[in-house]
UniProtKB/TrEMBL annotation:
It catalyses: Hydrolyzes free adenine bases from 7,8-dihydro-8-oxoguanine:adenine mismatched double-stranded DNA, leaving an apurinic site. Its cofactor is [4Fe-4S] cluster. It comes from Runella slithyformis (strain ATCC 29530 / DSM 19594 / LMG 11500 / NCIMB 11436 / LSU 4). Its EC number is 3.2.2.31. PANTHER family: ADENINE DNA GLYCOSYLASE. Adenine glycosylase active on G-A mispairs. MutY also corrects error-prone DNA synthesis past GO lesions which are due to the oxidatively damaged form of guanine: 7,8-dihydro-8-oxoguanine (8-oxo-dGTP). Keywords: 4Fe-4S, DNA damage, DNA repair, Glycosidase, Hydrolase, Iron, Iron-sulfur, Metal-binding. InterPro entries: A/G_AdeGlyc_MutY (IPR005760), DNA_glycosylase (IPR011257), HhH-GPD_domain (IPR003265), HhH_base_excis_C (IPR023170), HhH_motif (IPR000445), MIG/MutY (IPR044298), MutY_C (IPR029119), NUDIX_hydrolase-like_dom_sf (IPR015797). NCBIfam families: mutY. Binds 1 [4Fe-4S] cluster. It is an enzyme of class 3 (hydrolase). This is Adenine DNA glycosylase.
Length: 353
C-alpha cells in the first residue's frame, strides 16, 4: 500500500471521528508532556480529571517545580506508578531551574530529559513542534501489525525495531502532529483489541489481518507478565484519636507514600499467633485492644497482586508505646492530606467514614 494513502485515510478518519480532548487544543509542550505522562497506562476517562487538576494547580512548569514533592504525589494519588510523579516533578525542577522554563525544541533534546523516553519525546516533538517523529504506543503496534500483517513479537527488540522503522516511513511529512494523533486515536477507538469495527473501516480493503482472518492473532505478544503474589498484614495503631503511620522509604512499590505498620507473609494469615516471632507485635498485642481482622482487600498492580488484611489496635491514652522510629501519630486531617496508596484509602474509607 502507498504510504501516503495510509496516512491520508487515517487523517481523514481522525478529522471526522476524534474525541475532543483538552490536550489536543494546545501546542504548549508543558501541557502535552503532562497529558502524556498522566495517560501512560491509564484510560482517557480516568486520566482526564488528573490532567485538569494538574493544569489548574500548576499552570506553568515553574509552578510544578516550586511545589513540594509530597503535594505532587498527593495530587497524583490513585494513578499508580508513583515514580512517574516523582520524575515529573524532578524534570520540572530541571526545566525551570536549568533551562529557564523552556523545553528543549526537538526530539533529540527532549529525549535527554529524565523520565522522557522515545514515546513521550516523539509525542511532544510532533504535537508541539510538528517534528516528523513517529509515536509508537500499544495502539500504533496494533494498527500496524494488523494492517501490514506483521507477526513479529512486539515485546522483543527485533520486532520493536521493525515497527519503529515502518512507523517512521509512514508518518506524514506534511502533517506529522495530526498523523500521530490519528493513528493513536484510530487504535484506541476503532481498531480496538477485542472489537475492531472492520465493517466500517477506511483501511479494510488494504488490511492484511482482515483479509487473512488474523485480526485477533495480531499483534503478537510473547512475553507474559509474571505476577508476584504478596500478602500484607497491616496494623493500625490508634491512640487518643490519632493513628500511627509511616512513610515508605524502601525500594519497593509506593515509595514515599504513607501506610501503617506492615508485616508481609507468604500467605494469608489465619491467626495472630503467626506473628509470635515479631517482638514489636507481641509486645503491642499485650498493650492494646485488638479488633478482629478486616476483610481481605485485593489490589492488583501490573506485576503484583496484593492481598491485604488490617488489624486495628487501640491503646489507652496513658499507655506508653514503644513504636518503631519510623511510625508517627497523625490526626484525621493530616492523614487526609498525606499521599497514600489506593489500598490504604479504600481501607480508610471503609473503617473511618
Ligand atoms: S479492517 Fe479491522 S483489523 Fe483491519 S485496520 Fe480496520 S478495524 Fe483494524
Amino acid at each position: 500500500m502507498n504510504n501516503k494513502f495510509f496516512a491520508n485515510q487515517l487523517i481523514k478518519w481522525y478529522e471526522y471521528y476524534h474525541r475532543d480532548l483538552p490536550w489536543r487544543q494546545t501546542r504548549n509542550p508543558y501541557y502535552i508532556w503532562l497529558s502524556e505522562v498522566i495517560l501512560q497506562q491509564t484510560r482517557v476517562a480516568q486520566g482526564l480529571p488528573y490532567y485538569e487538576r494538574f493544569v489548574n494547580t500548576y499552570p506553568t512548569v515553574f509552578d510544578l517545580a516550586n511545589a513540594a514533592e509530597q503535594e505532587v504525589i498527593r495530587l497524583w494519588q490513585g494513578l499508580g506508578y508513583y515514580s512517574r510523579a516523582r520524575n515529573l516533578h524532578q524534570t520540572a525542577k530541571y526545566i525551570a531551574g536549568e533551562l529557564n522554563g523552556v523545553f528543549p525544541p526537538n526530539y533529540a533534546g527532549l529525549l535527554r530529559l529524565k523520565g522522557i523516553g522515545p514515546y513521550t519525546a516523539a509525542a511532544i516533538a510532533s504535537f508541539a513542534y510538528d517534528e516528523p517523529v513517529a509515536v509508537v504506543d500499544g495502539n500504533v503496534y496494533r494498527v500496524l501489525a494488523r494492517v501490514f500483517g506483521i507477526d513479529k513479537d512486539i515485546t522483543g527488540g527485533e520486532g520493536q525495531r521493525q515497527f519503529s522503522k515502518l512507523a517512521s516511513e509512514l508518518i506524514s511529512r506534511e502533517h506529522p502532529a495530526t498523523y500521530n494523533q490519528a493513528i493513536m486515536e484510530f487504535g484506541a477507538v476503532h481498531c480496538t483489541p477485542s472489537a475492531p469495527d472492520c465493517l466500517l473501516c477506511p483501511l479494510q480493503q488494504e488490511c492484511l489481518a482482515y483479509a487473512t482472518g488474523r485480526i485477533h492473532l495480531l499483534p503478537v505478544k510473547d512475553k507474559k507478565t509474571k505476577v508476584r503474589e504478596r500478602f500484607f498484614n497491616y496494623f493500625v495503631i490508634v491512640q487518643n484519636g490519632r493513628i500511627a503511620m509511616r512513610q515508605r522509604t524502601a525500594k519497593d512499590i509506593w515509595h514515599k507514600l504513607y501506610d501503617f505498620y506492615l508485616t508481609e507473609t507468604e500467605s494469608n494469615v489465619q491467626s495472630i499467633d503467626e506473628f509470635s516471632d515479631n517482638q514489636f507485635l507481641t509486645s503491642i498485642f499485650s498493650q492494646t485492644i485488638l479488633t478482629p481482622p478486616s476483610r481481605i482487600f485485593t489490589y492488583i498492580l501490573s506485576h503484583q497482586r496484593i492481598q491485604a488484611q488490617f488489624w486495628m489496635l487501640e491503646a489507652s491514652p496513658e499507655t506508653v508505646l514503644n513504636l518503631p522510629s519510623d511510625l508517627t501519630f497523625f490526626n484525621e486531617d493530616e492523614i487526609e492530606n498525606v499521599p497514600k496508596p489506593v489500598l490504604i484509602t479504600s481501607y480508610w474509607k471503609e473503617h473511618f467514614f
